């Protein structure tokens, strides 16, 4: 079968290039590999569409952790999955498709079922999954920390990763939303995140992106005022269309950069940022939706009102972030770490899609052969919403 990912030769090639000079397309290759063999609790899916997530960009850049190292970590947590260690790794963490094979212990799903895959891989016998599977020591992200991802003619997943395809959705939209929408849902709405309350104000970084386009809609649904931050007018327009109450084009308004060229916190820029917010009528920020990391976290802490909370799921600009702790403890603020979503959060998020309350914003649908090109575009911040691939 065909698949897109990396093999050991390609990985060696990309690791010879300085990180600043790498592009995601340098680290992705079309592979010709066997159809995965199922274990008892697994199903084989023929994806019709898949969607791009930033984790595949990290994988193809072999940064911050190279794919085979991630897979080794998964196997250390889940020895039963030693079949994932091969001399290639297939990427991709979102797809819609049809089941074409089931393992001997799969009773709830059948060949021919139309499904969406959610990317949380866990050992279902871990008791902690009763409360929150994201806290399981066995937890990994499919197609990032595991092999056999979505960018392939066939992929295999655990039966516990399946959701019925929302009947109201076309196939491309069904492939697009699960990873980022479920993540945004847990961050903002679920009991494990910021638990938005009607009347609050939420600042959303990267608001036209894969996470941000869902965050705006979740705020609207929760009766929360959203302040969407983006870097150009096209993205600003998209945020407005999605229902953002206020949009800041950070390039035009000199909203940042919040780090100096030496990577130190630029507190003058923080103060200026707060003035810009006040001039736009934002007198308090209850919640910050964070995934940018080093470049914004210091400012995010500073912008919050007393008692406010930051919910963070990533660090695209760097994970060694600095903050001025005085603004955290003296002003009783909190930072909540969040990662993907457990099964019930993913199902609740999916229900909002099925009912039409949340609508995926699709940047475009491309042939899967354009994967590398679109990864480069996303890496350069030139895409918005979700990029979808036809298989
Ligand atoms: P996108 O590329 O779609 O959107 C990210 C946006 O962030 C960019 O478009 C850009 O918007 C903004 N951004 C990037 N750098 C900066 C900066 N220095 N300052 C301000 N804004 C910046 O990506 P996603 O939304 O899909 O994902 C974002 C991150 O979240 C990735 O690192 C991804 O790996 C991670 N993630 C983590 C998940 C988890 O479960 N832990 C789940 C999903 C994603 P603009 O230029 O318009 O401001």
Report on this structure.
α6 crosses α7 (212-221) and α6 crosses α12. The chain has helices at residues 8-15, 54-60, 67-77, 129-132, 171-176, 178-188, 212-221, 233-242, 267-279, 297-303, 326-329, 343-354, 371-379, and strands at residues 2-7, 29-32, 42-51, 88-90, 95-102, 114-117, 120-121, 140-141, 155-158, 162-164, 201-204, 225-230, 246-249, 287-290, 309-312, 334-337, 362-367, 386-390. The protein has 391 residues and is of the alpha/beta class. The chain is globular, with a radius of gyration of 21 Å. NADPH dihydro-nicotinamide-adenine-dinucleotide phosphate binds at residues 53-55, 179-180, 183, 205-206, 208-212, 229-231, 235, 250, 291-292, 295-296, 313-314, 316-317, 339-340, 378, 381.
- Overall structural class, as computed from helix and strand content, comes to alpha/beta
pLDDT below 50 for ≥5 consecutive residues: which ranges?
none
The main sheet comes to: 7 strands, mixed
Helix coverage percent: 25-40%
Number of helices: 13
Whole-number mean pLDDT: 97
User: In one word, what is the shape?
Assistant: globular
| Chemical compounds bound to the protein | NADPH dihydro-nicotinamide-adenine-dinucleotide phosphate
Quaternary structure type = single chain
Separation of the first and last Cα atoms: 12 Å
Radius of gyration, whole Å: 21 Å
Strand content: 15-25%
Strand tally is 18
